[in-house]
Amino acid sequence: MKLKLFLISLSVVAISCGESEPKILNEKKISKSDLKDKWPLTETEGTLKCVQFEIEGVNPELSKGVLIEIKGIDYALNGTAKTWSDKYGYSNIEEIWSDNLKLKNDLMKLGVSEKDATSKISIAPLIEEGIKLCE
Hints:
alpha+beta; 6 helices
């Protein structure tokens, strides 16, 4: 009986101390064919998600994050989602973010070394699509 009460008490403490998982407000499939030459990732499709982080004392409109799920892995896209990456285990978008090869070649023609001539395709169009899901 004492063990049962202890476990119930422990469960109540764990629930009250823990923060809830972010709530998915909206999501949609998106692919390279949707953004054409503006597609910034090495993978060709995923699911964009708008999520709501529960932050005590913060206006809910300011705590929405944009993620993209690809092959079962959530990647943080905007600053709000990146802030919570460690806590919720979101992967770094850098892992699948495509290089801008045209700009890299242009920089190398100007004498910039291949190592230093790094640039990524803008991720802004993907973030903008995700933000639309939050509206």
